[in-house]
Records
---
Amino acid sequence: MRKTIIVFVLFFVVGLLVACKANEKWEVVQTIDYTEIATWEPMETPVEDSGNGSVVETNETDGYVTIQAAADGWGGVQSGSITLDLSKNPLIMVRVYENPDGSKWGLKFLPDNPLEGHEWGFYLIEDNNFKWNKYGVVDVRDMLGETIIEAYGEKITGKLWLMAAGGPEAIVSVSEIKIVNTK
């Protein structure tokens, strides 16, 4: 199983590099480094005191911030409002410095003023154990799908939720998040 995931990630990264070379229009529209992530507030979920994790360390020597799950075993921190232009086929790249065995991490997008049933946001990167100073990458438009795009439009504003999961001691250390428009 692990070899399959590694092979998939390698093929995906090679595909991204080939696509990047073929499409010189790629543009990094936002880089959120660990020092900015360290200022993010605990997630605000529909259930009080659920999922509101915290920043537990900022390592300036190696350049990462560590986020710990909440007491209920999952959760993290949320960004301020950001706008994603889905007409530009954005990718979000999360550089994970470390995610210990037994811990997982994920990334969600919560629209500002979510429609009924969307109060928990949308997974962009589902809970996983990807680690070792590598990037987790997601095609946002593809992950959200046309139904969500029809509901919110091509430009969608909301917050990123960066989460640890797997128990109250679960952590994830992150170096940066990049938003890259591919069109």
Note: The two ends are 34 Å apart (CA to CA).
---
Amino acid sequence: MKAIRGVLLCFLLLVVCTLNAHAVLVTLSEQDKLDAIMQGREQGKHVLDYVKKQYRFGDENAFRENGIIRTTWSKLMVLSGLLAEKGEHPLAPDVERIMTGTELQIDIHTYGDRIDFANNYRAYLMQGGKRIEPATMGVDHPLYLSEKGATGFPRYHATIRSYFAYEKISPQDRAEIVLVKDGKEVRFEVNLADYR
């Protein structure tokens, strides 16, 4: 009987450790914080490219919808990496602001032919059959892309920034990110367990 209990206890510990190791980190320990800052310093000027590669989703085509999952960990990395390039370190208030954030940020990059094309775009998450609306959302002002007279490419770029309360999502499970544009939906399947 003791052997069975021991095996069950080991199995439960393995499951708990596995779940904690593979999920968006909602609460970072002091060591997690230091590791993220150190990794950002190591990436230095390449930190933005690293985050784009590791935290991206969607089409790799330059003019198709795609996005980035912005976790607490990745935000600390970016802050640290960008400051490292200037020979600086993150300030305690900036680190604290990131660490105490209660929302997962999801950025969706989209493209169009007029400057205000994304003003009515919306995003939400589907997880476990439940629709989760963002706590807040905004659209960055589109940037001019192509030269005047260029044809065949969208002229403008916009980033839809959506913030989802951690308490409403399951950080270790799969989710669908849904972008509603021009009455149509564009869906991205992501596994939040893939992002730290």
Note: Residues 25-194 form one domain.
---
Amino acid sequence: MFNASIFDSIGTFLSDKGLAALGALLMIYLGIFIKKEILPLLQVKRNREVAEYILVIADDVTDFFRLKYPSAHWSVWLDRAVDRIIEITGVGRDTADRVAKATVMRKGEQVSKPEAK
């Protein structure tokens, strides 16, 4: 009889209300886990894809201006290239400036460092 009473109490606990409460707690835990572990991973992936997209556009824009002004130094057309990158991607001026300079440096030209204020 003692064994039957243990199973009866477990069966009573696992009634509809007990299962609903257990399911609610499990859903809360699952939500917290997803928010802390899964979403940051997805955000990193999205940021990496956006950065690659901006780099590809910067490569195309700098190539265009390099071909348009073949005898001019990169500093002559860099501001125009930055404006064009901003127009296409919608990023800020600082980001567009950094990506344009990085693209020019990657292609073998020397870019001066910004002066300290």
Note: The first helix runs from residue 2 to 13.
